[in-house]
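ARCHIVE CARD
SHELF: 3
SLOT: left
DATA:
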Amino acid sequence: MDTENKVEFGLKNFHYATFTETDGTYTYGTPVSIPGSVSLTLDPRGDMIEFYADDCVYYSAGNNQGYEGKLEVAMIPAQFKIDVLGDTQGTTSKVIIENQNALQHNFAAMFEMQGDLTQSKALLYNCSASRPSVKAETKTDKTDPAKSELEFTATGRNDGIVKVVTTAGTPADTKNAWYTKVFEAAAEVQG
């Protein structure tokens, strides 16, 4: 009997968690939901390294530099703008203030995709985002909601870990806790 998905489809439960890194130790905050996931694209970064000698490719190896990502959602939450992009909120006016001198914060990204047999949950450990574009259109005879796009990069931490993905064999307690605490893969790495 098959236990691995043959196909994956759908996207839901996108979460982020900010973190601090001190002397190679990562401390992650509680994951926060970004509702309204529409699409996610992760393109690999890093070229194939090829060394030519003796009139042929003498050595070749992959160069994993993480991913370039694009998340399309119904709307970027104000809390994400504060937590990650460095925006602030006025104490009295409650307006969101974008300051060009603000420091941005890296974050972990979690999400899941449904498969034909089970869902796969994924975690990118070290992401940094650019400010999203602002787009608005006039209403016509039909109203289509605007969508927001968030471009980000996902790179390895100091220990080299970029991403983890659950499998059909992942224990239920690991999957069930996916959005309550960032899964720590460092103890799982086999060398």
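SLOT: right
DATA:
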Amino acid sequence: MSQMTPPPDTNMPHNSFNDADSSSLSRVALWSMILGIPGLCVPLLGIAALIMGIVGMTQTGEGKRRGMGFAITGTVLGVLGFLSTSLIVLILIGGIFLPAVGAARQTAMELQSMTQLRSIGHGMSIYADNNDYQFPPTDQTFDILLDQGLIEDELLVSPLEDGDGVSYILTGVRELSFDSTEIIAYEDPKHMDRRVNVLFADMHVEFVDHTVFEAMLAEQEAERDAGP
């Protein structure tokens, strides 16, 4: 009699680990898509979606868990969120720092102009000391100072020059007086909106409000026209 093969034991556990693993959904992939949607507006969520999407793509695919589409969607949304956030940050940085850089550059040019005007005044003072405290004729002042080496060409061109060739204007004062209120020369008022770079007879230089400067200059010209 032939020996009969026993029927398989139906109570034996079936090794279905791979089947269960390949049929389950990757929660990481799913959450990458879920976080990716608000991540378009919220930077941290976008970064989280990007990271989880990359991890999700490694967990999904053929022979692995389901959810590759979720992972890809989450990754794309994460990248878009990161790029949009970076663009917003750059715009904000530009809006904050570019005006500050422009203001700093303007201030630097104004200070350079002050230095140049002060140097012109120093040259005029040296000339006056050697010529009975008299300044050169107004229409020849710059040429005489240049010829005598008391100033250099570069001093006559303001860093605030607007292209009209006029940088510093002499008032016509002929005598060194050391008066702290008497204006000898000034920056072309068109170069600055609210204040004017002014050289006084005591050789100090300061910025004066446009309105105040115009009043001071008008008063000085009126006194000069009135004579002694």
